[in-house]
Write a structure and sequence with these properties.
Pfam family, one: Pkinase
Number of helices: 15
Mean pLDDT: 76
Family: Belongs to the protein kinase superfamily. CAMK Ser/Thr protein kinase family. SNF1 subfamily.
Radius of gyration: 25 Å
CATH class of the largest domain: Mainly Alpha
Enzyme class: transferase
Number of domains: 3
Keywords: ATP-binding, Kinase, Manganese, Nucleotide-binding, Serine/threonine-protein kinase, Transferase
Structural class: alpha+beta
Number of strands: 15
Catalytic activity: L-threonyl-[protein] + ATP = O-phospho-L-threonyl-[protein] + ADP + H(+); L-seryl-[protein] + ATP = O-phospho-L-seryl-[protein] + ADP + H(+)
Order of helices and strands: HEEEHHEEHHEEEEHHHHHHHHEHEEEEHE
Low-confidence stretches: 4-11, 163-177, 282-296, 300-315, 416-429
CATH topology of the largest domain: Transferase(Phosphotransferase), domain 1
Shape: elongated
């Protein structure tokens, strides 16, 4: 793979990661083991070709996957550390899960109920966390469940996930997706479905596989298998306990209206045995994460550039646009303090009123108060910053004229810019 060979020659990807062996590959991505040079931490780097994404029409899936994973911090969900990008590639830097896929463990033999229950409890903990945040995975299966060196399950691959924003006016999702053997019957009916309920069905199939060692619905003929799923035709093997049989009948209920809910799963006798609740690992709010103290300049990694924006507009990862009438982001080689000083100098020279913000940023207004501009600066590396510009008030055309034609040229000319002084970063508005 040329870009990886080049990275190896340069000793590190983006100067941060030493890339190692290939862990796996698919139609649109390859995953490599890598090591963070500074910390020594092992990570997995998922490399995606922009060209293949564009040709396949799946760019929206990758954008959604990034925006979804930015919301999720849970011990049983693979963590996305940051996202990096070049003109041709997108790089997901992910938590490295040493134990590999749960599927590989099942292929060696079925689990006992206690062993399976522990994995299932961790799976439901992660699924409940996602649902509480409006995220529905829609492709839960052993191949997308990883196990770390301590035997803890980690949910991965949110490429087919959905969020509440995708729900139609009828309150349902309508995209056909998922892996055939794990897909819920209502998806096959093509009448819309509840994302939470299809995840519960898939969890039921996973649980059956863990304890049985084979699929509940399977047939060489895909249409025959679909008929079995639609009718709920499956048989539990003799070694299943009565409690597990009863529990599975509720998980694999073909009627989504009567199927067990996640909340009800937590109260089921089979599930509750030995269950230890996971504390909430939710993301901190947008306020001061250090209790009021701390530095005045916020340090960012590339993933923060994406996630700190409430709009999560990811267009900068996929195209070369440099912003519009509501604002933009770009990189400069300078310190945050110097960039702010230069913005102030340029604004005063243009006759704008300048107000310093508590952190590294300034608010600009014209004397009449007819428009306002907010400029914030974030440190990315020692001498590399992200400048985020937002139109606060007034006409977009006036903003474009003042910012683009008067302020920005002065700022870029006065700073030691990147190779492309107008280079956009992920999240350009």
């Amino acid at each position: 793979m040329p870009e990886m060979e080049q990275a190896a020659e340069n000793a590190a990807l983006f100067g941060k990661y030493e890339v190692g062996k290939l862990l796996g590959c698919g139609a649109f991505a390859k995953v490599y083991h890598a090591r963070n040079i500074k910390t020594g931490q092992s990570v997995a780097v998922k490399v995606i070709s922009k060209k293949k994404l564009t040709a396949s029409g799946l760019a929206v899936n990758v954008k959604r996957e990034i925006s979804i994973m930015s919301r999720l911090r849970h011990p049983n969900i693979v963590k996305l550390h940051e996202v990096l990008a070049t003109k041709t590639k997108i790089y997901f830097v992910l938590e490295f899960v040493k134990g590999g896929e749960l599927f590989a463990r099942i292929s060696k033999g079925r689990f006992g109920e206690d062993h399976a229950r522990r994995y299932f409890q961790q799976l439901i903990s992660a699924v409940a966390y996602c649902h509480a945040r409006g995220v529905f995975h829609r492709d839960l299966k052993p191949e997308n469940l990883l196990v770390d060196e301590h035997g803890n399950l980690k949910v991965s691959d949110f490429g087919l996930s959905a969020v509440r924003d995708q729900i139609h006016i009828d309150g349902l999702l309508h995209t056909l997706c998922g892996t055939p053997a794990y897909v819920a019957p209502e998806i096959l009916g093509k009448k819309g479905y509840d994302g939470a309920k299809v995840d519960v069905w898939s969890c039921g199939v996973v649980l059956f596989v863990l304890v049985a060692g084979y699929l509940p619905f399977n047939d060489p003929n895909l249409m025959v298998m679909y008929r079995k799923i639609y009718k709920g035709e499956f048989r539990c093997p003799r070694w299943f306990s009565n409690d597990l049989r009863r529990f599975l009948s509720r998980l694999l209920d073909t009627n989504p209206e009567t199927r067990i809910t996640v909340d009800e799963i937590f109260n089921d006798p089979w599930f509750k045995k030995g269950y230890k609740q996971v504390r909430d690992f939710g993301l901190k709010g947008n306020g001061d994460e250090n209790g009021g103290g701390g530095e005045s300049v916020k340090d960012l990694n590339a993933f923060d550039i994406i996630s700190f924006s409430s709009g999560l507009n990811l267009s900068g990862l996929f195209d070369e646009s440099c912003g519009g009438e509501d604002g933009e982001r770009f990189l400069l080689r300078d310190s945050p303090e110097k960039v702010v000083e230069k913005v102030e100098d340029a604004a005063k020279a243009t006759g704008l009123v300048v107000r310093r913000k508590k952190e590294c940023g300034v608010e600009l207004e014209d004397c009449k108060g007819s428009f306002g501009i907010l400029v914030e600066v974030y440190r990315l590396l020692a001498e590399l910053v992200v400048v985020e510009v937002k139109r606060r008030d007034g006409d977009g055309g006036v903003f474009m004229d003042v910012w683009r034609n008067k302020l920005r040229p002065f700022l870029c000319a006065a700073s030691s810019s990147t190779s492309d002084p107008a280079q956009p970063v992920a999240g350009d508005s």
